[in-house]
Amino acid sequence: MSFTETRYDSRAALAAAVAARIADDLAAAIEKNGAAGLIVPGGTTPVAVFDALARMPLAWDKVTVLPCDERWVPRFHADSNEGLIHHHLQQGEAKAVNLLGLYRPLPTPGDAIAEIAASLRTIPRPFASVFLGMGEDGHFASLFPGHAETAPALDLNTDAAVMVLAEPAKGHPRIGLTLATLLDTPRILLAVTGAEKRIVLQRAIANINDDSLPIAALLRQTRTPVDILLSE
After folding, report:
1. Minimal CA–CA distance to 3: which of 154, 198, 229, 184?
2. Using CA atoms, how far apart are residues 87 and 147, in angstroms rounded to an integer?
3. CATH of domain 3-231
């Protein structure tokens, strides 16, 4: 396992640091390869990061951004991660960014697996930057504890790039990238905010082989370093 921890005095400082690191990684990838791929999470934590990135002058037309996971709802739905990215990142300086959503207008996520996997192959690899968050139950990227769908998506030997994931109680069906896909990057940025999440993170670190905490699988793997950024 290879991870570092950096603490910030506020969530605003954390968001600024994450945005700066992402911008640096994107700029380096564009200079080297002429294009860059960026994977981001949904939820509340990344909003300030997206807003900061949208103010940064980059060759955004050479960047493709996509969510690490998605509820099976269209972009205009309030629960859509793609919609969140559009409203907060695909604005201002970053208006020209290429936004690749995971949702397709098909009845179920399973109906779209092949089409989504094909679209993922159009993104430059390795991804220039992968930014993730963590929930208070130790989940990330819709990889929830206690669900049968999670273990296959955490399997580093899978050939699948994307899988149908667990559907939380009274929630929407979900789809997301596998851990093996998320690790196809020079480093992962993991933002953890709030006391409750920090407690869960420390429990995962102390019990790194505990399969009941999906985040432990991310931290114990040795393919890709994880930079953990912490704040209140």
Report:
1. 229
2. 31
3. 3.40.50.1360
The average pLDDT across 206-213 equals: 92
Q: For residue 152, give Cα distances in angstroms to 68, 142, 143, 147, 192.
A: 16, 13, 10, 10, 24
Domain spans in the chain, listed from the N-terminal domain onward: 3-231
Start-to-end Cα distance in the chain = 25
Token digits of residue 223:
């393919």
- pLDDT, tens digit (0-9, with 9 covering 90-100), for 80-128: 999 999 999 999 999 999 999 999 999 999 999 999 999 999 999 999 9
Query: What letter would DSSP give residue 134?
Result: -
**β-bridge partners, 37:** 64
CA dihedral 130, 136, 141, 146 (to 10 degrees): 140
Which one-letter amino acid corresponds to residue 9?
A: D
How is residue 48 written in tokens? 């300030």
pLDDT of residue 1: 65
pTM over 0.70: yes
Strand segments, DSSP code E, in 55-207 are 63-67, 69-71, 98-99, 129-133, 162-165, 174-177, 188-193
| pLDDT band with cut points at 50, 70 and 90 for residue 171 | confident
Give 35-81 as a 3 state SS string.
CEEEEECCCCCCHHHHHHHCCCCCCHHHEEEEECEEECCCCCCCCCH
